[in-house]
């Protein structure tokens, strides 16, 4: 499966939209959900439910989910289902890069395994 230039632009736009507003770990969880179900509609349904779910411990987490939902709706709604996961995975990687570059995240923040 080859990503088109448009797919790469969508991944980049999604990453830029989420980087200042969303914790990358939360996006990683949604990506893991995608890998399990491989269904864009299930991903959108999950994102719609998350802000009001029992998984939310703080207002900050709720705002991450709300920002993610808005960004996904804006950028991923019309992505072909067969490349949805690849676009999301690239956006996740790019988002981490943008957060690192902006100083939101530092490489020493990563915990050793």
Description:
By secondary structure, this protein is mainly alpha-helical. The protein has one domain. The chain has 5 helices and no strands. Helix 1 crosses helix 5, helix 2 crosses helix 3 and helix 2 packs antiparallel against helix 5. The radius of gyration is 14 Å and the shape is globular. The model has no long low-confidence stretch (mean pLDDT 92).
Please report the distance between the alpha carbons of the first and last residues.
32 Å
Give the biggest beta sheet.
Answer: none
Low-pLDDT runs of 5+ residues are none
Individual helix count: 5
Using only C-alpha atoms, the radius of gyration works out to: 14 Å
Q: How would you spell out the order of helices and strands?
A: HHHHH
Number of domains: 1
The count of β-strands is: 0
If you average the pLDDT, what whole number results? 92
Keywords:
globular; mainly alpha
Helices, strands, pairings?
Blueprint lengths: L4 H14 L5 H14 L2 H10 L9 H18 L7 H19 L11
Helix pairs in contact: 1-4, 1-5, 2-3, 2-5
Quick structural summary:
By secondary structure, this protein is mainly alpha-helical.
């Amino acid at each position: 499966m080859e990503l088109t230039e448009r797919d790469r632009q969508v991944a980049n736009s999604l990453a830029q939209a989420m980087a200042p507003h969303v914790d990358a770990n939360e996006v990683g969880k949604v990506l893991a959900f995608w890998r399990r179900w491989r269904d864009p509609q299930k991903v959108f349904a999950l994102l719609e439910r998350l802000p009001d779910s029992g998984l939310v411990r703080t207002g900050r987490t709720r705002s991450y989910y709300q920002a993610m939902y808005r960004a996904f709706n804006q950028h991923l709604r019309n992505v072909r289902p067969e490349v949805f996961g690849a676009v999301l995975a690239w956006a996740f990687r790019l988002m981490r890069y943008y957060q690192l570059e902006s100083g939101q995240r530092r490489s020493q923040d990563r915990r050793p395994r």
